[in-house]
Amino acid sequence: MSDTPIVAEDAEAALHHVVVATAEHDERIDALLAARIAGASRGLVQRWIEDGAVTVGGVAVTKAGRRMKLGEEILVIVPEPEPIEVVPEDLPIRVLFDDAEIIVVDKAAGMVVHPAAGHPRGTLVNALLFHCRDLSGIGGALRPGIVHRLDKDTSGVMVVTKNDHAHAHIGAQFAAKSRGEPGGIVREYVGIAAPPPPRPSGTLRTLHARHPSDRKRFTTKGDHGKVAVTHYEIIQSLVGAALVKFKLETGRTHQIRVHAADAGWPLIGDQLYGKPPKALVDVAATLGRQALHARLLELEHPVTGERMRFESPLPADFAATLAALSPAGRP
Fold first, then answer.
1. Is the dihedral of CA 112, 115, 118, 122 positive or negative?
2. pTM greater than 0.85
3. What kind and span of H or E run contains 233?
4. Which fold has domain 83-177?
5. Catalytic residue (one of 151, 153, 270, 317)
6. What is the pLDDT of residues 31-76, one digit of tens each?
7. Is residue 151 among the annotated active site residues?
């Protein structure tokens, strides 16, 4: 494969002109635009407002909760994103499975999945462009198909597609799971929560939306959003903490981290969503990331239909944290 840079696919700049209808009088502007503009969520509209891209009558909107009046004209100018060069890079990756349709990898903690502003190089996509010599590409571009992501500091199993057919097939399995439909994709994670959950097992079923004041975070505590469902079970009691198995019924951004934190037992090392108990500050600092690992992925092969199961052992840093918190390893 050539080392010539390719350019990531970007959306075209868009202009939306919306006139408030009778039924929309007194509706919040973020809710109105999310309903009227295809592909827009309230969280995305709120970011547009923060960026000054939304005006009413020529005046920039500053509050997502602004109530609209009949006949008011809203103009949304979404700027064209800057293209990001995606360069093949010879980076170490652990491959669990590789054929002409998909590649399954064991992603290391600290590796960003996809190039973005601030992370144009050193990502999993950069590594896959170098490693995969049989990409037929997605949507006409020579690039691997990302159908799901793991957070930068979450380790574990990921599947990536190599062509349009596989991308559509695997993507449909993930979409069905996100709608809460049975079967298809199975994903299990393990995490270390501190304090431990008050019950040995349970189900967290909430709404899931972007945080109203911090665009980097998500929350379950609002009155809107998408349904998120996480099943959990304590599999090992630790000192001031617990090793917890999580099984996703839906797939929302940061879902496990948000559910655990909002339930009152955040994951150790998760600096975005929680702080560890004082007694575990040093343990969290030594780990240096959230204690979350995608240990199992089960899916249907896009061509053969075979059920495939992939597992990842605990990485060394996670295992060391577990050992430090085990009753036998504490004074």
1. positive
2. no
3. strand 226-237
4. Pseudouridine synthase (3.30.2350)
5. 151
6. 999 888 876 778 788 888 988 889 999 898 989 999 999 999 999 9
7. yes
